[in-house]
Amino acid sequence: MGAKFITIEGVEGSGKTTQAALLADYLRRQGIGLVETREPGGTEVGEQVRQILLSPLSAGLAPMAELLLFLAARAQLVKEVIVPALQSGKWVICDRFFDATLAYQGHGRGIDGKIIRKLNEHATSGLKPDVTFLLDLDIEVGIRRAVSAKREFTGSRGGDRLEQEDKEFHRRVREGYLELARPEPDRVKIIPVSGSIEHVHKIIVSLIEPFLVKVQ
Fold first, then answer.
1. Which whole-number Å values give the CA distances from 49 to 7, 176, 191, in the listed order?
2. Where does ATP bind (predicted)?
3. The CATH number of the domain where 120 resides is what?
């Protein structure tokens, strides 16, 4: 079997980055060569776009401008990192991908999902994850976690531009994620973030093991 493209999605503070790192460590122990990356970012261009998108100074960014910036960063990431890795036989773990755009810019900002899907098709050349782990968490708990973590590691008292959105925005994003997941149960695995970090990791491992059997 070929290399696998794995994405991890979720609302702010759901623990995506932590779980992505734990999964990467687990797969490496199984002898899987892989690449870890994130959105927006993962390339020199993408990281510059990330600074614009997440900076509180970009508070006036128009929804369509926001969407196009995310897609620009994604197009660069797919071409420069993801596709070359997959073609070389390496697995890819990406912290967010196009489901995030549908949830945040579609459900959160109100941009027509058909427009997003069409533009995303061009940005990714049709690339789709083999499996997506959606970490589901109450938005109020998530925001508190995200802001607390940022304060601990950077000393910042507030969240980034998206973390600073109101509760209604984050509620729409969470509902959007769940709505997007329902029609694709084979690809999108909803994981309630109700236990410890290790508990969530064990669930992810149990869901990824069938892919390892196919590889062997």
1. 20, 24, 29
2. 10-17
3. 3.40.50.300
DSSP assignment letter at 39: S
- Report whether pLDDT(18) > 60: yes
Q: Does the bond joining 40 to the residue before it have cis omega, within 30 degrees of 0?
A: yes
DSSP 8-state secondary structure symbol assigned to residue 131: E
Q: Annotated binding residue at 17? A: yes
Neighbours of 105 (CB within 10 A): 24
**Annotated binding residue at 132?**
no
Of 211 and 9, the one with more pLDDT = 9
| Band of residue 144 on the pLDDT scale cut at 50, 70, 90 | confident
| DSSP assigned state of 164 | T
Q: Is residue 12 a known part of a binding site?
A: yes
Query: Is position 113 annotated in a ligand binding site?
Result: no
The answer to whether residue 50 is domain-embedded is yes
Query: Is 16 annotated as ligand-binding?
Result: yes
